[in-house]
Amino acid sequence: MGTHLITGAGSGIGTAVAERLAGRGDDLWLLARDAGRAKELERRFPGARTVVGDLADPEKLSWALSHQTLPDRLDSLLHIAGVVDLGEIGELTPKAWNRQLAANLVSPAELTRLLLPQLRLAKGHVLFLNSGAGLRANAQWGAYAASKHGLKALADALRWEESGNGVRVTTVYPGRTATPMQVKVHQQEGKEYDPDRWIAPETVATTVLTALDLPHDAEITDLSVRPRG
């Protein structure tokens, strides 16, 4: 039985991962943006504990976590939360850039920094749920892709820095997945949404658990998952 701290457990892939881990009896700590969201997560995942911290404001995460109980050790830190706002470079405002960079890059970096002692103690695992946009930037995806390209750089640097401490680092790059975020993306693109065209969140959860459960004599560094067809 492992101990895992998960961001984004309230919907989509994060929910699927949390359900799989809870179903096998693992110990869950779930990050919530506010107290109301924390209560929702506690009702949804009986026995899970919550930590309140807003990924939209990374500079306050240290203060927020210092006033709460945290796990003594962590087998994994799963960065699954994310936000997206599409738009052409000539139209995106600093607010749109900063919102995506804060939630998708700076907060994962800060949360990792704050929890490294617990991860080192357990020789744990940091997993970043990235995106196909973390490998290729298309039109209107500039800000989101920049945040995800940065997340890849964060993971790659962290892997080198923490290998001597026994901490494994994995990046998963899912293609389009049938989640609430994908509904929003289709709305922004002006396209009809058909969830059957895209990867199921449970399928991505399987790739996440595959990386976590790999024997400790190896690590999966990068894993891309794409819809068929």
Summarize this structure as a short list of keywords or feature phrases.
7-stranded parallel beta sheet; single chain; 229 residues; alpha/beta; 7 helices; 44% helix; 7 strands
Which helices and strands appear, and what pairs or packs with what?
Blueprint: E1 3-7, H1 12-23, E2 27-32, H2 35-44, E3 49-52, H3 61-66, E4 76-79, H4 94-122, E5 125-129, H5 142-162, E6 168-174, H6 180-189, H7 201-213, E7 222-225
Parallel strand pairs: 1-2, 1-4, 2-3, 4-5, 5-6, 6-7
What does this structure look like?
The protein is an alpha/beta fold. It is built from seven helices and seven strands; from the N terminus they run βαβαβαβαβαβααβ. It has helices at residues 12-23, 35-44, 61-66, 94-122, 142-162, 180-189, 201-213, and strands at 3-7, 27-32, 49-52, 76-79, 125-129, 168-174, 222-225. It has a seven-stranded parallel β-sheet, with helices on both faces. Helix 4 (94-122) runs parallel beside helix 5 (142-162). It starts with a strand and ends with a strand.
In short:
By secondary structure, this protein is of the alpha/beta class.
Strands, count: 7
Low-confidence stretches are none
What share of the residues lie within helices? 40-55%
Strand order of the largest sheet: 3-2-1-4-5-6-7
Shape: globular
| H/E element sequence | EHEHEHEHEHEHHE
Q: Compute the gyration radius: what is it? A: 17 Å
What proportion of the residues form beta strands (DSSP E)?
15-25%
Q: Average pLDDT value?
A: 95
Terminal residue distance: 37 Å
Alpha plus pi helix count? 7
Class from secondary-structure proportions: alpha/beta
Largest sheet: 7 strands, parallel
